[in-house]
Each structure stands twice: as C-alpha cells, then as structure tokens.
Amino acid sequence: MKEYRFYGWKTADIKDAKGLDPRDYYDLLLNVWCVETCAPRMRKDWSKDNKTLGQCSITAFLLQDIYGGKVYGVPLGDGNFHCFNDVDGCVFDLTSEQFGDTILDYSNCPEQFREVHFAKEEKRLRYELLKERLEEKLAER
Questions:
Q1: What are 84-109's pLDDT values in tens digits?
Q2: Strand locations in the chain, DSSP E?
Q3: Model confidence at 113, in pLDDT bands (50, 70, 90)?
Q4: Euclidean distance between CA atoms 17 and 21, whole angstroms
Q5: How far apart are CA 23 and CA 20, in angstroms?
Q6: Is residue 1 pLDDT above 80, yes or no?
Q7: Residues 6+ apart with CB under 8 A from 22
Q8: Residue pair 90/70 in contact by the 8 Å Cβ criterion
Q9: pLDDT for the residue numbered 141
Q10: If you average pLDDT over residues 8-17, what whole number do you get?
Q11: Predicted structure pTM score
C-alpha cells in the first residue's frame, strides 16, 4: 500500500458512489490545490512543496459533500480552527501535513458548519473553485 502523510490515511477505507476512498481524493487534490484555493492570509507561504497549506475548511466541506459525516475543527489558539472529517467514526484530515511534524489533537473538537465558514464570500468562492477543479479531474479519469 502506498504511504500517505495525512492524518487517518491508514483507516480511510470509506468509498463513495464511484468507489473512491479519501486516499484517491487526496491524490486527485494534489493536482487541484493551488495558491488561488489557499486562504488569502496564508498565500505568501503557500508552495508546491506544501500544497495543503490554507486548504482545510474548503477541502473538509468538499469531502463532506462526497461522503457525508461531519466536519470538526481543531482549535488553533488564535480563534481559528483546522477542519477535518469524521464519517461514522472514520476520521481523516487530508490537509494535516501542512503542520509538518506537529501532532494535532483530534479529540473533543467542536463541529464546524459551512454556513459559518461560507459567510466569508472569499471562502465560499475558493470552495467553488476547488469543487470545479476537482470535478474536472474526475471527468478526466
């Protein structure tokens, strides 16, 4: 089995209607995440070597569209949250590698809601761009 660096990759065995698991989506998103989908406050630090930087909430909500489940947020201490997915106990975080060797605590995290996150139009627009680009990659398969 191929090794991944995102949290929960070893147990991310859920499948969508196309038969794809989160590892498959991670592989696709590596060719989709870009500086335009990165959070504006983090764009100066985004690079092709750290493609997951600033992509957490839009990625988590996009994977929620695909698999259902809930999106939770690890409190970062500055008022922001790092979003991840929980689908019936299958917990995964496709954008965790942006933290390098820092281990996040995924326990007892508050649920996150798209209505709150997408109240920021720039975030909603980044989500729509990510979704559109992912759909293009899926159509190429």
A1: 999 999 999 999 999 999 999 999 99
A2: 70-75, 81-87, 90-92, 111-112
A3: very high
A4: 10
A5: 8
A6: no
A7: 6, 8, 9, 12, 14, 63, 67, 85, 92, 94
A8: no
A9: 83
A10: 96
A11: 0.96
For the beta carbon of residue 29, count every other beta carbon within 10 angstroms.
23
The one-letter code for the residue type at 119 is: A
> C-alpha angle 114/111/82, rounded to 5°?
80
Q: In this structure, what token pair is assigned to residue 48? A: 């092709």
Please count the CA atoms within 13 angstroms of the CA of 107 that sit on its side-chain side. Answer: 1
Place of tokens 């499948």: 15
Q: What angle do CA 64, 26, 137 make, to 5 degrees?
A: 90
Residue ranges of domains in the chain: 17-140
pLDDT confidence of residue 77: 83
Q: Where are the alpha helices (DSSP H) in 6-120?
A: 22-29, 56-67, 114-117
Helix (H, G, I), strand (E, B) or coil at 74: strand
For residue 52, give the nearest of 13, 72, 82 by alpha carbon.
82
User: What is the DSSP code (8-state) at residue 7?
Assistant: B
The answer to whether 95 and 6 have CB atoms below 8 angstroms apart is: yes
**At 40, which amino acid appears?**
P
Q: Is the CA virtual torsion 79, 90, 23, 119 positive or negative?
A: negative
